[in-house]
Amino acid sequence: MSNGKVIAICNQKGGVTKTTTTANLGIGLAMQGKKVLLVDADPQGDLTTALGWPDNDSLPVTLTTVMDNIIHERDFDPFEGILHHDEGVDLLPSNIELSGMEMTLVTAMSREITLREYLNRVRHQYDYVIIDCMPSLGMITINALAAANSVIVPVQAQYLPAKGMTQLMKTIGKVKKLNPALKVDGILLTLADMRTNLARLTAETIQRQYGGVLKIYKTQIPIAVKAAETSTTGKSIFAYDKGSKVAQAYADFTKEVLADGAKTKSKSAVR
After folding, report:
1. Which residues in the chain belong to E strands, given as ranges?
2. 216-222 and 183-192: which strand pairing?
3. What is the reported pTM?
4. How far is CA 101 from the centre of its chain?
5. Order of strands, edge to edge, in the sheet holding 5-9?
């Protein structure tokens, strides 16, 4: 298996369903026969909790552990601590200790590429590695972007994102000095109730401001209580409420991501 594609799910604004999107995209890809590693890169550990490990502070190996091993050049098994979820994905978990890693990275020699160095040791076992980024543009998120092939940006349909999107794009531009191949795969509209004027206005604003330079995914993730409930069950929306509109939306989104991957492979083959 060749090196898996690394996708960062990133937006410095919280509450835009980054974690829900990471979990359901990852499991959606696994349902399509792909080998997937999810990486929880948020000290809150929401992805770890949402996938069924609520007591994440008791986990012996987390993202903090492996990054610390890389920084201090220790010999270690890079697959130790990776958890296996019943729905076919692997997870590198996180907990509050990752907050301390943010400070450690400031003085580390290869501070921006520590996560990349780790993922280079495991990504050959996966088709996709998907990173759930924290809602900030600090050192951990910089590491995620430096390690990624591409970025998917979830944007809440009740929020006009111009200012936040501008800052994120500036950060991505800076990270390109470390990772020239980094690109934005697209913008995903989430928590969308298209019956409201605000949601429609947001969609129109995103299309007007970014549609000419960035892909806007055709799929829109609707707002639904069931989707929020999945974080307490340890399951994806596919297992929790497979007949729902949200489950169908994430299935459609997964197909869009797979189609983009197939196009990229075709272009590479031509070259």
Report:
1. 5-9, 36-41, 83-84, 89-92, 128-133, 150-156, 183-192, 216-222
2. parallel
3. 0.93
4. 19
5. 83-84, 89-92, 36-41, 128-133, 5-9, 150-156, 183-192, 216-222
Q: Where are the chain's structural domains?
A: 5-270
For residue 110, give every residue at least 6 positions away whose Cβ sits within 8 Å of its Cβ, in sequence order, or none. 71, 117
Q: Residues near 24 by Cβ (< 8 Å), separated by ≥ 6?
A: 236, 237, 238, 250, 254
DSSP secondary structure letters along 213-269: TS-EEEEEEE--HHHHHGGGTT--HHHH-TTSHHHHHHHHHHHHHHHHHHHHHHHHH
DSSP reduced 3-state for 79: coil
Q: Is the pLDDT of residue 180 over 80?
A: yes
Query: Which amino acid, residue 154?
Result: P
What does the CA dihedral 146, 152, 156, 162 come to, rounded to 10 degrees? 60
Instruction: Tell me what the pLDDT averaged over the chain comes to.
Output: 91
How buried is residue 156: exposed, middle or buried, by Cβ count under 10 Å (0-12/13-18/19+)?
A: buried
| 266: pLDDT strictly greater than 90 | no
Q: SS3 for 5?
A: strand
Closest-CA residue to 125 (of 77, 164, 163, 173) = 77
Q: How far apart are CA 227 and CA 17, in angstroms?
A: 10
pLDDT tier at 61, thresholds 50, 70, 90:
very high
Phi, psi angles (nearest 5°) of residue 133 = -85, 150
First to last CA, the chain: 20
Calpha distance 203→190 (Å, rounded): 10
Q: What is the CATH number of domain 5-270?
A: 3.40.50.300
pLDDT category of residue 1 using cuts at 50, 70 and 90: very low
Q: How far apart are CA 139 and CA 258, in angstroms?
A: 29
Q: pLDDT tens-digit profile of 144-156?
A: 999 999 999 998 8
